[in-house]
Design brief:
Strand content: 5-15%
Strand order of the largest sheet: 1-4-5
Radius of gyration: 22 Å
Helix content: 55-70%
Order of helices and strands: EHHHHHHHHHEEHHHEHHE
Largest sheet: 3 strands, antiparallel
Structural class: mainly alpha
Shape: globular
Distance between the termini: 24 Å
């Protein structure tokens, strides 16, 4: 099977000088550094406090700029900022304004609060269950908000995904807590939240996007023309997103436990126990500020699948591709949005 992650040609950076191409990124997304800079820019948590009207105005300015009708005196910096607001808050498939709590730009404030709480309140089963439920509720919202909107999900499927992920997280958390309680170093108990989060992500994301796996996702040529569907592309995209989400939370949830374990042995830390939670939340925030763009940049946003793969493993979709290529010339690769 031949799968690749080469970027769509439309992912090449916009012109450095002259008119900005709003449909192209400002950085070269064929490199990890270019993707990191792009996602650090578009997931900037400061955009979470921007008013809804400002986002609407930004979208309107982008639309005006595309047809050369922007207000007189509009600067390049204003266009770039409008592009930033648009890409950080509007869904790339539907163009709809996303719920602020489900945007990737909310991953730092939302993730730091919930992850910090999970790391702090891990000693009792009740606390573990409660914070895993809160975390999976947040994850379900993020996954739904950043879904591939070309593959709609029914209410029952959403409910199944949410319940399954929550149950997976709780069972993993309780199971690990019970197993490690009397068999391992007390430090291991601090890793229960990470084990639960990893297990839940492996259930939540595929179930939330199950329609893509069942029916396939749209794949297009280099010009964005939709030519057919592919289930293999869906599996690849979902797998990459799942791994990215685990990587996103891993440093904070793996490095902080031994740090806190050591700090709590000092007398001065014992005198400020009420501040342990806020301290962990702030430290998780520092990790996430770096890890959110890092995780998003691990794989190209627009991945590619070889047409030869469709021919071998998805003959029915390959036949649809042939019918849609009226001139008989088939592209070597097709592109798809993996989602976030």
């Amino acid at each position: 099977m031949v799968l690749s992650c080469v970027n769509n040609p439309c992912e090449k950076p916009a012109m450095a000088l002259g008119k900005i191409d709003l449909d192209k990124p400002l950085w070269d997304l064929s490199t990890f550094l270019g993707r990191w800079r792009h996602f650090a820019w578009v997931t900037d948590f400061r955009t979470c406090v921007v008013s809804e009207q400002q986002f609407i105005n930004a979208k309107q300015l982008c639309e005006q700029y595309r047809v050369g009708r922007e207000p007189p005196g509009t600067t390049r910096e204003q266009i770039v900022y409008a592009k930033k607001l648009y890409e950080s808050a509007f869904h790339p498939d539907t163009g709809e304004l996303q719920n602020v709590f489900g945007r990737m730009s909310f991953q730092v404030p939302g993730g730091m609060a919930i992850t910090g709480a999970m790391l702090q309140f891990y000693r009792t089963t009740t606390a573990v269950v409660f914070w895993q439920w809160v975390n999976q509720s947040f994850n379900a919202l993020v996954n739904y908000t950043n879904r591939n909107a070309n593959s709609p999900v029914s209410t029952s499927q959403l409910g199944t995904a949410y319940v399954s992920a929550t149950v997976a997280a709780m069972l993993t958390a309780i199971g690990c807590k019970t197993f490690w309680q009397n068999r391992a170093n007390p430090l291991m108990a601090r890793y229960v939240p990470f084990a639960a989060v990893a297990a839940a992500n492996c259930a939540n994301i595929p179930l939330m996007r199950q329609n893509e796996i069942i029916n396939g996702i749209d794949v297009s040529d280099e010009n964005g023309n939709r030519l057919t569907k592919s289930k293999i592309a869906a599996v690849k995209g979902i797998s990459q997103v799942t791994l990215s989400r685990i990587v996103m939370c891993a440093p904070g949830m793996l490095i902080l436990p031994p740090i806190m374990q050591k700090l709590e042995t000092y007398a001065w830390m014992q005198r400020i126990k009420p501040l342990h939670g806020p301290m962990q939340i702030m430290m998780v925030g520092c990790f996430l500020t770096f890890m959110v763009p890092t995780a998003c940049a691990l794989f190209p946003q627009n991945c590619a699948i070889a047409v030869s793969t469709l021919k071998r493993w998805e003959p029915e979709n390959y036949e649809e591709l042939r019918k849609n290529c009226e001139d008989g010339t088939l592209p070597a690769v097709l592109y798809f949005n993996k989602g976030l």
